[in-house]
Amino acid sequence: MKFVKESVIRASPERVFSFHELPDAFERLVPPWENAQIIQRANISEIGSRAIIEQKIFGFLPSKWIAEHTAYDPPRMFEDVQIEGPFASWRHRHIVEPHPDGAILRDEIEFEPPMSIIGDLAAPVFILPRIDKMFDFRHKVTREWCENEL
Fold first, then answer.
1. Which residues of the chain are under the pLDDT cut of 70?
2. How far apart are CA 119 and CA 113, in angstroms?
3. Fewest beta carbons less than 10 Å away: which of 1, 13, 45, 104?
4. pLDDT for 150
């Protein structure tokens, strides 16, 4: 399955990319309703760097998510891949492109839901709306920092 979220941000691509390089960027991007605890931060500029997040799925099922950074091309793109976690697979590309009004921030996620066919059937109702809500929040936070912190 594929999910794409795209937003125009009125700031340079370099500024948008630099937001993601902040030491606490991931903490800023975790929506408050996600009930996630960051155990280990990743440095996006280090290929092989891993983030470890513990969370509760549906508020009560414990889950550990380990994501490894696999590509870094500033100020255009970085990528992380799930090594361990709630999905059968997850590859997330963070892409920043120039735009006449500043930059386009695009998150491209290729994933396979858990539980095979059951997960495939549940994805449109349970998984994709949650991912969409989370990335609405993430793009809002990024936009506010990039456009208002000048």
1. 58-59, 149-150
2. 5
3. 45
4. 54
Determine the pLDDT at residue 48: 98
Q: Which long-range contacts link 60-68 to residues 24+ away (Cβ below 8 Å)?
A: 67/42, 67/92, 68/42
The Cα 124–Cα 122 span in angstroms is 6
Task: Tell me the domains of the chain and their CATH numbers.
Answer: 2-148 (3.30.530.20)
Instruction: Report CA 42 to chain centroid distance, whole Å.
Output: 13
SS3 123: helix
Structure tokens given for 96: 């920043």
State residue 33's pLDDT score.
87
pLDDT at 61: 80
Which two structure tokens, joined as six digits, stand for 4?
Answer: 């794409």
Q: Which residues of 83-122 are buried (b: 16+ CB within 10 A; e: fewer)?
A: eebbbeebbbbbbbeeeeebbbbbbbbebebbeeeebeee
74 to 35, 51, 66, 79, 125: CA distances (angstroms): 30, 19, 23, 11, 35
